[in-house]
Design a protein that fits this description.
Largest sheet: none
Number of domains: 2
Helix content: 40-55%
Radius of gyration: 16 Å
Order of helices and strands: HHHH
Number of helices: 4
Strand content: under 5%
Length: 81
């Protein structure tokens, strides 16, 4: 078994996996109708944590989604917003 940190390049595979599960379990409602939300990007505590991890080199900003990159940049410019 391989464990890895997911990146934006993995999105298509995850969507395919959700389609597979929806079909296998005959459960579109749970696997297709409610895609994950990006509401976590409104959480300043998470953004602060992410900025800390980027600054220590533990997270490469290039693996972040465009939305995450934008939110991190905005947070750095205005951390109290």
């Amino acid at each position: 078994m391989e464990i890895k940190i997911l990146s934006k390049e993995d999105v298509n595979q995850l969507q395919e996996l959700n389609r597979l599960f929806a079909e296998a379990f005959d459960d579109d409602e749970n696997y297709q109708n409610f895609p994950p939300s990006d509401s976590y990007l409104n959480n300043n505590k998470y953004l602060s944590y992410l900025v800390d991890k980027i600054s220590t080199g533990e997270v490469d900003p290039e693996i972040l989604t465009v939305a995450e990159q934008d939110c991190v940049a905005n947070f750095i410019r205005n951390p109290k917003a």
